[in-house]
Amino acid sequence: MEWLKFSWLGGGETITSEQFTTFLSITQLSMLRHLDVTSSPCVSDESLKLMVECTPLLRHLNIQSCDKPTSEGIRILGDLKFLKYLNLYRTQADDAGVICLIQNNSDLENINLGSCLKISDFNRIFEEIGKNCRKMKTIDVWRAKTLTSQGIEDLLRGCRKIQRLDLGWCIGLTSNSGSFDRLAQSCPNLTKLFLTANRTLCDVDVLKIADFCPKLELLDILGTRLVTRPTIEYLLTKCDKLKFLDLSFCYSFGADVIGSLRANHPHVSIKRSFQD
Questions:
Q1: Each residue of 114-151: b (16+ CB within 10 Å) or e?
Q2: CA dist., res. 94 & res. 15, Å (int)
Q3: How much is the pLDDT for 203?
Q4: Distance (Å, rounded) from C-alpha 253 to C-alpha 43?
Q5: Positive/negative CA dihedral, 128, 131, 135, 137
Q6: Distance between CA atoms of 174 and 149, rounded to whole angstroms?
Q7: Left (φ > 0), alpha (ψ -120 to 50) or beta: where does 126 sit?
Q8: What is the rounded CA–CA span in Å between residue 101 and residue 155?
Q9: What is the dihedral of CA 155, 132, 62, 41, to 10 degrees?
Q10: How far apart are the C-alpha atoms of 135 and 132, rounded to whole Å?
Q11: Terminal-residue alpha carbon distance, the chain
Q12: If pLDDT is split at 50, 70 and 90, which confidence band does 275 have?
């Protein structure tokens, strides 16, 4: 067996943590490469420990929204050595556990640390990714409040293959630090970029993205108030692979402007939500 998908396993106590642990202990999983237990209430510290022992060759691990494992329990995942994909979204993963995972899995290409509220220093996390995971392609750190320009700088020293990056609601990142300029110039392979709710994002940043990210397919700048129509027109003309642009709650873009942009660029899905 090489692949298991157990999303939402054990809801309503239909399967207990003890039963899931028993399943792991009696099933031949030594060749397992892919395990997805998204939002499974039966996943516990004990089952994670057994999981690591039984699946030494694991490449893909998704424990997104598994709220039962503690920070200490998640640290045991650091014993895995061959991960390429890791999703810890909305778990109790902390700095020590994530750093251990990064240091022991140099082949990591995709990591999701969105809404991991126990991580206190995202700059250190980005520093470790830049040092150890040079194949990294996808990073999601939605709501990483402690991430600053220093973290971006450290990341980009080692990671130049990034294709998808979610920096939504990362309130420590500001335009005047040069983070977005540096990001655009260092990541020519970017296809998806989320800068959701960054109030400092401005025309200069979007122009840089347009000039240096020719493969861009998706850009989310929901909530910015400083980007103007000429800049968006330039972006839409320059990035001919763009398929989706989120301009929701961007106050420079009323319904008439959005209508005009959609008419002029019908190949791009332009999203607009607005609340008075």
A1: bbbeebeebbbbbbbbbbbbeebbbbbbbbbebbbbeb
A2: 27
A3: 98
A4: 45
A5: positive
A6: 8
A7: alpha
A8: 16
A9: -90
A10: 9
A11: 54
A12: low
CA-CA distance, 37 to 35, in Å (whole number)? 7
Length of the chain as a residue count: 276
DSSP string across the chain:
--EEE-TTTTGGGSS-HHHHHHHHHHS--TT--EEE-TT-TT--HHHHHHHHHH-TT--EEE-TT--SS-HHHHHGGGG----SEEE-TTS---HHHHHHHHHH-TT--EEE-TT-TT---HHHHHHHHHHH-TT--EEE-TT-TT--HHHHHHHHHH-----EEE-TT-TT--GGGTHHHHHHHH-TT--EEE-TT-TT-BHHHHHHHHHH-TT--EEE-TT-SB--HHHHHHHHHH-TT--EEE-TT-TT--HHHHHHHHHH-TTSEEE-----
Segment 32-74, tens digit of pLDDT = 999 999 999 999 999 999 999 999 999 999 999 999 999 999 9
- What is the pTM (predicted TM-score) of this model? 0.97
Q: How far apart are CA 6 and CA 32, in angstroms?
A: 13
163-213-87 Cα angle (round to 5)? 20
Tokens of 77: 């995942």
Determine how many CB atoms are found less than 10 A away from the CB of residue 234: 15
Provide the token pair at 217: 């397919």
